[in-house]
Design a protein that fits this description.
Strand content of chain A: 25-35%
Strand order of the largest sheet of chain A: 5-4-1-6-9-10-11-12
Shape of chain A: globular
Helix content of chain A: 25-40%
Largest interface: A-B, 38 and 38 residues
Distance between the termini of chain A: 22 Å
Oligomer: homodimer
Number of strands of chain A: 12
């Protein structure tokens, strides 16, 4: 931890000098520690096959860059995605939901804000075959038995002290209904909802349009680049964080 | 088809001039048409989730480049992978095994050599949900019902005229046994087997080591870069192709 603080100090110092001005010292998240998850998770079926989803990680990586720009110390827990690590971000690569939960638990203790942007697989195969499963010549059908993964977002929201917790909801229908339900059920502070049935925004697009919900209100953001949207989301998160009492 | 031939002619002419010498006019596959499949396939579960495998596509893309260098006209049918298309290769991007079969069927008619390097998913979900499947709060388990995908390699080997057909076998155990079984069962000319349980070679590595089997013999290739191995494999394929009678 001492090492981490020393590194964080020098990272901050370095970037202030690099930028030639002190964005970080005056940023809306100056001095705050933020943990962000991003990308998909992969759930192994056997040594060659897996279950996953279309999350590209772009939104989470853009949020990490925006949080650094706002002065935060950022840890990015990333599922498998082919993206460059934003400057001054501490990146922890993981594969499965269980890996991601482990990495989050190791970094959550001193974190002020947690943003769960990863598309964590809801289920994983009950058994991971140690050898590649062979097709049976006489079987045209098979089934993969799945068991529910831990809910990382809900778990973070039950920790004490609880960080300010932001979730994401990628939905294809009844977006507002599912998002408000998720906000309440998980006991988190903000939820960012997007409609992934629209291919021009969402998973693999460079653009996104979202609506953010909280218990007393909501705010819609029109389609923009994920970088621009990330900066607006960080500003909104910082505004709500100011009135948040750690419990 | 006329358009394709004209394009192929100009592609060939261009590369001869570009290289400043006539590799292609004297290459071991000069004038031959080669179709190569590469990468994984993705089998949709619902609008956000899919089944896939760890194939990176590197080996198939290296084979496409090596076949061009040997003078062939090359069509590369590629599953989802983030690789640049080698020069002078006609690339057809696909997602699922059914897409891949469709693309192969459209390009196989006048092809002399077919190399099935893709890691085609053996099974796909029986039903693709039109909306994102929701977790049921009271269900900790679920199952995905799967149905067998078409066997593209075996299908190609039953076409008339039959191209010289090369398969790949990615195995984690009893590699030689499964490879020889696959060679015979599918009625193909060569099979290239590698042991993907060794992380230093295989799926996402830049290196590979394989053993090639044919009915009367076999040849082992020690670990080398996929580019170097691809050139050796193309040479071996061209030697065997010389004695192949189209049926």
């Amino acid at each position: 931890q001492i090492l981490e603080r020393v590194q964080a100090f020098f990272n901050n110092t370095t970037s202030i000098h690099e930028n030639g001005h002190s964005i970080q010292a005056t940023g809306v998240l100056h001095g705050r520690s933020v943990v962000i998850t991003a990308g998909p998770t992969r759930e192994a079926i056997d040594p060659v096959r897996y279950l996953s989803n279309y999350s590209s990680g772009k939104m989470g990586f853009a949020l990490a860059a925006a949080a650094v720009k706002a002065g935060a110390s950022v840890t990015l827990v990333a599922g498998p995605c082919q993206l460059a690590t934003p400057a001054h971000v501490t990146r922890v690569d993981v594969v499965s939901a269980l890996d991601m939960q482990q990495a989050v638990s190791e970094h959550i203790a001193h974190c002020d804000i947690f943003i769960g942007c990863a598309a964590v697989a809801d289920f994983r195969p009950v058994q991971v075959a140690q050898q590649k499963m062979k097709k049976q010549q006489d079987h045209d059908h098979m089934a993969i038995e799945l068991v529910k993964n831990p809910d990382i977002l809900a778990w973070v929201a039950t920790q004490s002290p609880t960080p300010f917790t932001v979730g994401f909801a990628a939905e294809t229908n009844e977006v507002a209904k599912y998002a408000r339900d998720k906000l309440e059920r998980k006991g988190i502070q903000l939820i960012v909802a997007n409609d992934v049935s629209d291919a021009t925004i969402g998973f693999n697009s460079d653009n996104n349009a979202v609506t953010v919900y909280w218990p007393e209100g909501e705010k819609a953001f029109a389609t923009s680049t994920k970088e621009s949207l990330a900066e607006n989301l960080v500003t909104l998160i910082a505004e709500h964080y100011k009135n948040f009492k750690k419990q």
